[in-house]
Amino acid sequence: MGSGFSFHSRENPPSPELSLGDLPEGCVASVLVYLDPPEISRLSVLNRAFRGASSADFVWESKLPPNYDSIIRRVFDDFLPSDLCKKELYTRLCRQNSFDGGTKKAWLDKSTGGVCLSISSRGLTITGIDDRRYWNHIPTEESRFGTVAYLQQIWWFEVDGEVEFPFPPGTYSLFFRLHLGRASRRFGRRVCNSEHVHGWDINPVRFQLSTSDGQETISQCLLEESGKWIYCHVGDFVVEKFGVPTTIKVSMTQIDCTHTKGGLCLDSVLIYPSEFRERLKLF
User: Which CDD domains has this protein been placed in (predicted)?
Assistant: First the structure.
């Protein structure tokens, strides 16, 4: 009595303590399927079980677009190694992958796996682009393509673009990325030359979007704010059919010939899942 000793019978030895590291990898992987890619990556450093489960093919296949095979063929043209595991494939697709001679880029959003696409100014048909009195391609670090088309002055402004891509089902928003004024670096600071900016606040720019399945959108806006990148929302389109490439046609025009317009940088056309629309306002 009061000795403070305890004992276990040989028939009932003490149970060893269990930890997360003792969970079977298959059970852990079944949980990781329901998490976002960044969460999976963070949990992979917990222990050996989570590290192994975080590389399971069925975990990462659930994060890939359902038609990722079609996207791979369109972007990589069969030049992607065929022995990549699904995690490596997801990582590769999250890079900004160039195709169509470097005039377009496609990538997956790292957090959601949503498909994003961009068409450079060199991948667009621009009226007068070959006449250096009107347009110039200028280098800049502020474009993912390394250059933008800079308009000095023109009477008739018209830009057209087209892309065919196997977008997975969903709703997508299309934008023109524009900048009034010419930005550069001086003594390590960003400066903007607005010398040639004129004519955009008189009449609105007209945007048009159409798809191969008959969707059409028309919008317009005045370009007024200089010195920052503007994401002009052209419209939205819906992809419903699985496995059928969608052709997107887009245009931007300002053809009022009563005045000239100039001082505009045209970077690219962006196509993002519509849930990212608010995110662009932060750029």
Answer: F-box_AtSKIP3-like
